Amino acid sequence: MLIPRRLTEHLNTLSDYFPAVSLTGPRQAGKTTLLKELYPNYTYLSLEDPSVRIPAQEDPKAFLKKFNDRVIFDEAQRFPALFNYLQGVIDEDRHNTGRFILSGSQNFLLRKNITQSLAGRVGIAKLMSLDNLELQNAELLPKTIEAAILEGGYPGRIDMSIQAESFYSAYISSYLERDVAELVSESNLLTFRLFIQRCAIEAGKTINFTKMAREVGVSVPTIQSWIGILDQSYIIFRLPPFFRNLGKRLIKAPKLYFYDTGLLCYLLGLESAEEVEMYPGRGELFENLMIADAFKSFHHQGVEPRFYFYRDRSQHEVDLVYERGNIAKLWEIKTAEEYRPRLIESLEKVAAMWDRPTESTLIYTGYESHYVRKSFLQPWEKMRWGK
């Protein structure tokens, strides 16, 4: 079953404006499926396939002369010479749009090649695993938060009902072999796998680089580098703290979240909805589910998400903050089926202190949407993340 993706509209827009379009995202997010569906008349070439890559490397000029228009280059970062060639072809006719599609799962290498050779010539899009609205539109969104957290959003696993252990075990192995092996020494791959599991334990928490380095057994700079690798390959993302002083946002520790809670549950050893319900960090899993959904939803609308969390010296906290124009949107996320006044205490205090108009929302596990004073209560499955 082909699950409609919300990114389609943004990809069509980019194809109308740019000579080339880059599509990145995690492995198994459905990039190849989407591109083949959206561009049926394009030649599809996977540069991860040796039968394609080796001839390209042996005689790049002849290869690229043959495939010089309306081509999808999948895993394009594996053929660096491609980018210099495309620069020349594109510059001959900058008004001929939508000629090349460059996709890949190794965002660091793909972005590096684009920055060096194709800056200003490529429209950028990111396809993540399925967001909640995509699942809901396909009638695939689980009814309970525990099931939703456990299920995650990788299209292949959901569509084919692949058992979690089989899917995620293969996923991690493939990720380590194809992506991480190029960036981490072979002697450190086992330690890197343990590091990923350590990140799962820290999901929803502020990153303590020193503590993590001590527990994993590597240096702080190594931990910082490895977190960057996980971020660039769309396994995790970092949510920075909110400060009016932009410099403080850069030096204060961010929170760590996983893009997909199904993978997170696998790393935590959670195998059933009942285990998720009994997990001591269930609230943090729910928080991860919703904040990841916000990030994915913005990416799928073609918007780079600029979210933050808020925490002040008085320990007033808000889980998610987004400012646009003169409006600040504040979201608090709680695993509660019924409203109680204390659920919005911190939210209201922070909103009252804000220096511009605010829209305050409590995302909870109840069933009714309504206002309580100045805060809006919204059930998790009804949440829509607008631009």
Describe the structure.
It is a single chain. This protein is α/β, with parallel strands linked by helices and 387 residues long. The protein is built from 18 helices and 13 strands. The protein has a six-stranded mixed beta sheet with strand order 8-9-10-11-13-12. Strands 2-3-4-1-5 form a five-stranded parallel beta sheet, sandwiched between helices. The longest helix has 19 residues, at 282-300. The two termini are 29 Å apart.
Secondary-structure blueprint:
Blueprint: H1 8-17, E1 20-24, H2 31-38, E2 43-46, H3 50-58, H4 60-66, E3 71-74, H5 81-92, E4 100-104, H6 107-117, E5 122-126, H7 132-137, H8 145-151, H9 155-160, H10 164-178, H11 189-201, H12 209-216, H13 220-232, E6 236-239, H14 246-251, E7 255-258, H15 261-268, H16 273-278, H17 282-300, E8 308-311, E9 317-324, E10 327-333, H18 345-353, E11 358-364, E12 370-372, E13 375-379
Parallel strand pairs: 1-4, 1-5, 2-3, 3-4, 10-11, 11-13
Antiparallel strand pairs: 6-7, 8-9, 9-10, 12-13
Helix pairs in contact: 3-4, 5-6, 8-15, 8-17, 11-15, 12-13
